[in-house]
Amino acid sequence: MCGIVGYIGNKEASKILIDGLAKLEYRGYDSAGIAILQDNEIKVRKYKGRLSVLEEKIVDEELIGKTGIGHTRWATHGAPSDVNSHPHANTTGSLTIVHNGIIENYIEIKEELIEKGYKFVSETDTEVISHLVDYFNEGNLLEAVKKAVSKLEGAYALGVMDKAHPDKLIAVRKDSPLIIGIGEDENFLASDIPAILKHTRKVYILDDGEMAVIKKDSISLMTLDGSPIDKEILEVDWDVEAAEKGGYDHFMIKEIYEQPKAINDTLSPRITSNGIKLDDIKITKEELEKINKVYIIACGTAYHAGLLGKTLIEKYVKAPVIVDVASEFRYSNPFIDENTLMIVVSQSGETADTLAALRLAKENKARVMAVTNVVGSSISREAHDVLYTWAGPEIAVASTKAYTTQLVSLALIALDMASKKGTITKKEYEAIIAEINTLPKKVESLLKEEEKIKEIAKDIYIAEHVFYIGRGADYDVAREGSLKLKEISYIHSEVIAAGELKHGTLALIEDGTPVIAVATQDKLYDKMLSNIKEVKARGANVIAIAKKGNKEIEKSADSVIYIPDIIDEITSVLNVIPLQLLSYHVAVMRDCDVDKPRNLAKSVTVE
Ligand code: M6R
């Protein structure tokens, strides 16, 4: 996830671009750059670091021009660096582009372009686009862009500027957001509304497969095959603060809603017609065969994701897995040697305890694999193999999209290991991939339950204690649900393996005590029904999560949220959605600072 902006008009472009980028920094801040058309040349300035670095460096420079494009980067391909920053130019520097998205077939295109004599300077997927447009450019920029994008697979929102066509910018969209701002003698392009709200409230929202030729006094909208489009102008009535959150009240709820896309972005480049391809997981079949112990180490939500990793690796790879929280693991006496594989999971890639565990493993010669969301983070640099979750920046302290993308990443790792080791049949491998592919749509359908969940929240927000119960993978996701509730609503919540209730915790259940029961494991469903009856008999207010069709549960639970049918192994990706929504609405009803809960920080870089 990156942010792009573009301006064409009568004012100085650099200031407008930088102001716009400041409103898009929530989309990523690994580097920032602008390109300005000045005296028939394109001047590019781009630097690693936050936008302030770019601002400081260009303060004394004469960047004068009325047309330009800009970018704030969330690194995916290539670590944060000046050279990997956008805008990216063709070899002569006559055209530049900014890009938000991921080009899945960039390696293939890069190889073809290298054969044709093109030289690449960055490690990004984006650079192929500038050379590809150059390759097709025979004087008609629009045609060149159309031909170039017809070769691209993946997601892109593009802004293109060519010094041979100083009167226009070209914008194209597929699977990444892009809007066109309509001004008076000036027009804009941007990833999101806040970037241009200071200048105009009139916008076109481009849909997938649409493009625009933007001049200072006209905007032509068309499909990729050139057919003109007539689009309604949207009049934005949000204030600037709401606009930064995409119209949502909090980043947390915005990020909850971003999950279908985040899961899809994480999965789709890795699931090919020939199975799973994890480019940065280099561990070979031979190396895997020597591994006799697997640790999954993480903290908080990432630890909860790791619990599913254990289930999947043990089931498909047939190898024993120990999951531990990093702060405990690092001071225990673990058996680590060259036959150990450690998988560390960390959204930020900077969590001090997780990093220490990784270093401990490396000192003892273990192989270390990381699942992280931040390219260039300490954990990504120090691990031997890395699988990035492509969730985009997560701003709310409470993890939501980081968790679901960690779950699917661990599923990819487990299946990749199993297929390398030959511990899974082809049929089983293909069947689970087919199920995984349904997740983005199923998550989307669950988000439609928000109103119902909000009603349930009305019963819970006054509670002093809430209990979560589950069995197997449902117990693991219940832990995440419980953490989510306590961290943002400050209600005391506890999670208990449902079978353990009668060994103590049942004593705490009284009239009206809320119990959230996750009951989606087919083979454990009947057992869960008995546990639900146990708490119901003590007066609990039971809110259950079950698979669609399992109606029996309605006899014992006070309310039921149904998830779409899915294999037991990956139900957590769906179950967590109502749990996140419930916590969110309870916290809002209690008037809590949802995005910045007291005493907590997003990245815990101290012990
Ligand atoms: O950046 P990390 O994933 O390493 O962070 C680990 C935990 O601090 C984090 O998952 C935390 O528990 C969540 N933000 C809570 O929602």
Question: Can you put this structure into words, describing what you see?
Answer:
The chain has 607 residues and is an alpha/beta fold. It contains 20 helices and 26 strands. The strands form five sheets. An eight-stranded antiparallel sheet has the order 3-2-4-1-10-9-11-14, covered by helices on one side. The chain has a six-stranded antiparallel sheet with strand order 5-6-7-8-12-13, covered by helices on one side. Strands 18-17-19-20-21 form a five-stranded parallel sheet, sandwiched between helices. The longest helix is centred in the last third of the chain and has 21 residues, at 401-421.
CATH topology of the largest domain: Glutamine Phosphoribosylpyrophosphate, subunit 1, domain 1
What is the CATH architecture annotation of the largest domain? Answer: 4-Layer Sandwich
CATH C-level label of the largest domain:
Alpha Beta
Radius of gyration: 25 Å
List the helices and strands and how they pair.
Layout: E1 3-8, H1 13-22, E2 31-38, E3 41-48, H2 51-57, E4 67-73, E5 88-89, E6 95-100, H3 106-115, H4 127-136, H5 141-150, E7 156-162, E8 169-174, E9 179-182, E10 187-190, E11 202-205, E12 210-214, E13 219-223, E14 234-235, H6 240-244, H7 251-257, H8 259-267, E15 271-272, E16 275-276, H9 285-290, E17 293-298, H10 300-317, E18 321-325, H11 326-329, E19 340-346, H12 352-363, E20 367-372, H13 378-382, E21 385-388, H14 401-421, H15 426-437, H16 439-447, H17 450-460, E22 465-470, H18 473-489, E23 492-497, E24 514-519, H19 525-537, E25 541-547, E26 559-563, H20 571-589
Parallel strand pairs: 17-18, 17-19, 19-20, 20-21, 22-23, 22-24, 24-25, 25-26
Antiparallel strand pairs: 1-4, 1-10, 2-3, 2-4, 5-6, 6-7, 7-8, 8-12, 9-10, 9-11, 11-14, 12-13, 15-16
The chain binds 5-amino-5-deoxy-1-O-phosphono-D-mannitol (M6R).
5-amino-5-deoxy-1-O-phosphono-D-mannitol (M6R) binds next to helix 10.
